[in-house]
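Q: What would this chain look like folded?
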Amino acid sequence: MGISGVERRKFAQLQREHDSLGKSQGYAAEIEKYGEDIIGNLFSQNQTLKNVRTRTMQMLNTIGMSESILKLMERRSKTDMLIFIGLAILTLVLIYFLIAIVKPMLSGAGTTLSNNVVHTEE
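A: My prediction, written as structure tokens:
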């Protein structure tokens, strides 16, 4: 017994559907592989971004520390300048008072000494 024309057409139709289903499964497997690759790339990019974020935070902390150290140095420099100016003024005042006290003493001693010298010559 042979296969009739209707059965051949049905068989051909089933064969085409089978082939189409096989291609569809191949496409689905390929799409799934692309999806896995994309997920792997996203995970890798996520790790890279986390590392960049960590390094950026460390850099910002370092910059913040550097900035606070620079501010501290600037404040310290101003304080040192004020101390220097204060001590310079104090030194000038002391020199003035020493001159004011010692000069009359030397002038008085000088006159006595010159008087003694003058007396011996007479």
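The chain has a mean pLDDT of 86.
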